[in-house]
Amino acid sequence: MLGGGWSNALAADGQADPLLAPAGLSEATLAAESTSPQSAFGEAKTWWWNATVGVASDFDDIDDANASVGISYFAAEDVEVGGDLLLRYVVQDGNDALALNPQVAFRWHFWKGATLFGSSAEGANTWTAFLEVGIGVMVSTDDVPPAATSINFTPRAGAGVTYALNDTTRLLASLRWSHVSNADIFGNDDNVGSDGVMLTVGCIWAW
What we know:
Elements: H1 4-9, H2 27-35, E1 47-57, E2 62-76, E3 79-92, E4 97-113, E5 127-144, E6 149-153, E7 156-164, E8 169-180, E9 194-206
Antiparallel strand pairs: 1-2, 1-9, 2-3, 3-4, 4-5, 5-6, 5-7, 7-8, 8-9
């Protein structure tokens, strides 16, 4: 609720009245603060950035831990395209490897509501649930998997949720299928692929 100084400074039509504005505040400042609320998450033409950590495993002989930073843009309402840069440490039979893995991803926030999969009152987006697909290129210090190559493609697909801490910060969690292979670009004999599950958690901030 606006205090007395603020409410008196706004005319009936919502425009700032310079004669009634508190000292030190210009008409432009009052008008901007009264008409420019923070953009809602999922609103088209908005930018967000994120930082995450994750773990992945094929439940056989390859595990990895990773951390990433990324940026995303809502090209349409609830439709997000983004880019991430992952730093991955791969533990495997043979030599372990350190890898850089830039990726692009598309997310569709198909559901949003005040409670997780409960009430979805109009305009409430405390929770969102999304589906995602993406692909990247991973360059590693050793072959991944062993006997494969050090350059691989990393397609992915999964689902996740976000939760609003406030207007500008959200928590993120996702579970995805994570694949590593070189798509036979170095020959079939060197294409030893790996399929695993990756769990990712992190934060999202308004740009």
